């Protein structure tokens, strides 16, 4: 190899290492992404959009579907009428109904109970996406082999 060819090969090697070092953080960021959550909501619902942003801020990768018939989605996912809220999501094989905090969803995914999923029935004013402090609320684990049960209690403080 001539000096010129050797210098050119060294420069290419150096540039390749530099490029790999520059791209490495992108690969790490991709590997560090959180779970993917798929959300079905009404396109005009601002509180649902705010909940999706809450989930994204907590590290979830959200895919959103704006649909006209949410009742069909709720029925297909086995959400009882008494536990319904304004949007329905799926993550890690579970259903998440309504304004459930990201911390409760993370706990669900970590503990993996035998259940259909979590719900914040109705639209609790102090829940993520609603963001009106002062009203305590509960998140319910539903579709369990026994009875539905309280999964978490929230004070209503944001």
Task: Please characterize this protein's 3D structure.
It is a single chain. 37% of the residues lie in helices and 23% in strands. The protein contains four helices and seven strands; from the N terminus they run H-E-H-E-H-E-E-H-E-E-E. Strands 2-1-3-4-5-6-7 form a seven-stranded mixed sheet, sandwiched between helices. A hairpin with a 2-residue loop joins strand 3 and strand 4. The longest helix has 29 residues.
Main attributes?
158 residues; 4 helices; alpha/beta
Short summary:
The chain is of the alpha/beta class.
Tally the helices.
4
SS strand fraction: 15-25%
Rough shape? globular
| Span between termini | 68 Å
Percent of residues in helices: 25-40%
Contiguous runs where pLDDT drops below 50 for at least 5 residues: 4-31
Rg over alpha carbons: 22 Å
Got a strand count?
A: 7
Order of helices and strands: HEHEHEEHEEE
Report mean pLDDT, rounded to a whole number.
Answer: 85
> Largest sheet, described in full?
7 strands, mixed
State the strand order across the main sheet: 2-1-3-4-5-6-7
**What's the quaternary structure here?**
single chain
Query: Would you tell me the structural class of the helices and strands?
Result: alpha/beta
Task: Give the topology.
Layout: H1 3-31, E1 36-41, H2 46-57, E2 61-66, H3 70-76, E3 88-91, E4 94-98, H4 102-111, E5 117-120, E6 137-142, E7 149-154
Parallel strand pairs: 1-2, 4-5
Antiparallel strand pairs: 1-3, 3-4, 5-6, 6-7
């Amino acid at each position: 190899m001539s000096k010129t060819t050797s210098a050119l090969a060294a420069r290419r090697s150096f540039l390749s290492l530099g490029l790999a070092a520059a791209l490495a953080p992108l690969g790490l960021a991709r590997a560090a992404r959180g779970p993917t959550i798929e959300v079905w909501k009404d396109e005009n619902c601002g509180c649902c959009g705010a909940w999706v942003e809450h989930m994204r801020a907590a590290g979830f990768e959200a895919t959103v579907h704006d649909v006209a018939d949410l009742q069909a989605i709720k029925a297909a996912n086995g959400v009882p009428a008494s536990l319904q809220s304004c949007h329905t999501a799926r993550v890690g094989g579970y259903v998440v109904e309504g304004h459930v905090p990201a911390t409760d969803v993370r706990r669900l995914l970590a503990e993996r109970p035998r259940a259909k999923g979590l719900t914040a029935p109705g639209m609790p004013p102090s829940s993520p996406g609603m963001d009106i402090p002062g009203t305590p609320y509960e998140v319910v684990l539903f579709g369990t082999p026994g009875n539905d049960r309280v999964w978490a209690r929230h004070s209503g403080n944001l």
